[in-house]
Design brief:
Number of strands: 8
Number of domains: 1
CATH superfamily: Vaccinia Virus protein VP39
Mean pLDDT: 96
Number of helices: 6
Radius of gyration: 16 Å
Helix content: 25-40%
Oligomer: single chain
Shape: globular
CATH architecture: 3-Layer(aba) Sandwich
Length: 201
Amino acid sequence: MTQQRDFPDWDKLYREERVESLPWFNPTLDGDLDEALTKLNISTGMALDLGTGPGTQAIILAERGYKVTATDISATAINQARVAAGEKGLDIAFRQDDILNSNLSLEFDFVFDRGCFHVLPPNRRQDYVLAVHSLIKHKGYLFLKCFSHLEKGESGPYRFTPKEIGDIFINGFNVVSVKETVYQGTLDRLPQALFCILEKQ
């Protein structure tokens, strides 16, 4: 059985730390997402940046012409990201929202999760699958980046094998691909990660 991991109070973290110093801060578009969007020829549409944090990914997607909604459980993160997007004159729908108790009702062409799923309690993973499934259009995509089982140690997010991803998402999604990659951010050694392309059934 997976040992329960401890995570910080996300809102407190965003109140007390500079976003540029956070381990997951990445000022450029995630390379794996960029590659997937190109490969699948997705150049327009409605996108949800789930767990947007500092909003960097949402901002770049909006700059590229996608219609972006961005959510985070932290009100402070949302406020900071809204200011950053406003300074660039971007129209992004930022909302404080908990995916496990979501108030969203739109359907998106794709959802990008770069850090939400792998910090959720194991007993809520199926709730996540159901919630995300309801937010994606038929044949739309979930692009999921999470820590890989190859990342050693006991701290930080939960780790997953490709098989575990397939088992967790078997009801509602087809696994297009799962590749070993790294989690871009501010750490000297980038953590081992999986990038998963999941198509809604």
